[in-house]
Amino acid sequence: MSTVLDHTTGVPAATPPQDSTRATPARARRSSAISRHTHPMWFLVPAFAILFVFFFLPTVFNFVYAFTDWSGFKSQINPVGWDNFTDLAGSGTLFRSLRITIAYAVLVAVFQNLFGFALAVLLERDTRLNHVVRVLFLIPVLMSALAVGYIFQALLKPEGALNGLLSAITGTDVHTAWLGNTNWTIVVVAAIHAWKWMGLSMLIYLAGFKTIPVDLVEAAQIDGASPWRAFWRIRFPLLAPAVTFNVATALLGSMNGFDIVQATTAGGPARTTEILNIFIYRTFGQGLFAQATTMSLILFLLVALLAFPVIRFLRKREEIL
Amino acid sequence: MRMPRRALAALALVALAATGCSDPASETTTGGPATWAEPTAKLDGVTLTIWAAQNSNTVPKQVIEAFQAATGAKVDVVTIPDPYEQSVQTKVATGDKPDLAFWQPTASMLTALNAKANLQTLDDAPWLDKLTPALRDITGLHDGTRYAALITSPAVEGVYYNKEVFAANGITATPKNFDEMLAAARQLKAKGVTPFFEMGKDRWATQWWVQVQLADAAKAGLWDKINKKQETFTGPVVLDAIKKYKSLIDEGLFNADIKTATFDDQGAALLSGKAAMAVQVNSFFGQLQAKADTATLDSKIGFFPISPTGNVGTFIPDQSNALVAFKTGDAKREAAARQLLAYWMGPGYAGFIADRKTISLQTAVQSPAGVPKALLDVHASLSTSVGSMQALAVANPDLYINLADMIAGTMTPEQVAATTQEQFAQLAKAAGVPGF
Is residue B18 part of a domain? Predict the structure, then answer.
């Protein structure tokens, strides 16, 4: 299959093959003319106003305050140039938090996609039972992240329900502090984060499976491919756009994680789960507003810098389509 | 399939923008010297808000009811979630202010609220002359201006011990200095008793161990030197105290579950005699009061202050000891807030301390009967005690978090000192302290 390249950017166009074979350019033009007629551009204004006030403006201020000495200790805000950046660069705490943040994001991306993919495969057939189970797995996505965090925190306490259950099964007293290990707690918290969001990944993988034409799989079967081989060689590669979306959102979304970590460990034990947003929260709470702003600007730039290569790499994977 | 790309872009944008920050608070200034109304003057239709933490929200209950009955004002106590100080600072920074709030009355924490811009001055408050002279100016001042009203006896860092455990193991007198305390601890350990109990999981008490070791140095002006950058946390004085703490833990003088133990565990262990001693502050005793009655506590729990060379306590007024009044820009409510303080520390004071079973700070008001013996000992140690880091340093770094990390094994004493100094300098610089 050929790849359609976008001439302006040189990046492969996002249009998957099934669309490009159906829509002719003329028809596409006509349909866009109709949509412009029924959906005039000014319909965007209310949404854009909200976006502007709550997202663009704070982001701009984020850039401004990072270069000031804004704090809770005094009333004036003076520009200080790159001071905040040089101070932070000299501090080990920032890099430690950055390392933890990236490790956390990678773990979440891996877990969330493994869980979501497994669920999508298990629940792919449109039976009534599967419909019900899909909804059940989607419920955590709609739940408050803090509530999820507090529930897991209670379940995983040394005297919590999980240890109670394990004690009852094994017949011995289990007192594991699931959130108390300086090496493994980050994995546990990432798994909780992934558990909360796996329903969304499942939904997107399910949608991805639905877009794969049945005749392709049938053709493979007629050619003598085993179901295993047909799955991994035909259907899985065709799922590439869903993988792109899921991996990128899980990875970049969890870089901005805060709620679940705050509710389960608040950065502990011994700050081994102190992701950058928790560090920022702590710094802000001390009244060091400019430093906290600088850190969030660094996080912003880091996510932006990471987003391009990750999305580019995942898009490249789609070129085989 | 164009959607995912656009959705992705939008989602990335939303995620990125979520790191943005809000506008700083605008400021209100009220000029002129404050006037103090009669404590029981009518205040019908006035509603005051008091912010309190989870451990102080019941403190004003009785006094508020009496004030409401006397004046007709309405007073709401709003509990701000923990971490209290952090939440309050953030709210105040965005312009959200109560009329009054419980607040640690130390200079560093008054700085943290930008006292000059946000708080009412209480310099000519009517109750000041009634206070015990030794306690009048012990705290609540910042740059020579009074911003906080001390309502209860400030906390002191010292050693709470189980009298029965001491007696059963042949320790007849309380230790006279730090080394004697360690000798007693080793004697207890030899007999199979856990000498000290520390709460590594809840972290905040870890700093008391370092601070009591610094009591003599504090008397000699350690914090002044640190404030002027003539001395640092990485210097031998502070670093040796941190190392000593570590070596005592390594020696096995602490509870085996030090890394995971909580504040609650600590109270239970001392009360049951599982451990003999805990270096703590008044709120620890508050916890014991919730677990046992005064008679039991009097027979079981004692207190002695400790320092390297003697029995010098380290005082650390905390958030439940004092209140600050905010400049809200509404003159009527500001006056009413002052009036509530004047009532609290005036006609309402006897009722307040009787309800709280706490020690009187005023010479003319008798402490109620039934104040536990240990608390009287704590209060008695105040007159000879020295200020803690919180009381005397210009900034309050997270020493306790670093120490807890050291207990958990992820930091060395040198790293604890360096990280604390780094943060101290950062806070001092933000506060505009000369030299930082």
Answer: no
- Does B292 share its domain with B400? yes
Domain parsing of chain A, residue ranges: 88-318
Alpha carbon of B32: minimum distance to chain A alpha carbons (Å)? 20
Mean pLDDT of B244-265: 93
Ordered DSSP codes for B270-298? HHHTSEEEEEE-HHHHHHHHHHS-HHHHH
Band of pLDDT at residue A110, cut at 50, 70 and 90 = very high
Q: Are B102 and B322 in contact (CB under 8 A)?
A: yes
Question: Torsion-angle region of residue B149: left (phi > 0), alpha (psi -120 to 50) or beta?
Answer: beta
Q: What residues make up the domain containing B235?
A: 156-315+390-430
* Nearest-by-CA chain B residue for A304: B16
Which of A3, A71, A259 should one mutate to test binding to chain B, selecting the residue with the greatest count of B CBs within 10 A?
A71
Chain A residue with minimal CA distance to B409?
Answer: A270
Question: B87–A271: do the CB atoms touch at under 8 Å?
Answer: no
According to the CATH classification, is domain A88-318 in 1.10.3720.10?
A: yes
- Tally of domains within chain B: 2
Structure confidence by residue, pLDDT tens digits, B347-377: 999 999 988 888 999 988 888 888 899 999 9
Contact residues on chain B for A87, CB-CB shorter than 8 A: 426
Which residues from B are below 8 Å from A299, CB to CB? 19
Q: Is A65 on the interface with B (CB under 8 A)?
A: yes
* Degrees to nearest 5, angle at CA B234 with B181 and A266: 80
Domain containing residue B60: CATH number: 3.40.190.10
User: Do B244 and B217 share a structural domain?
Assistant: yes
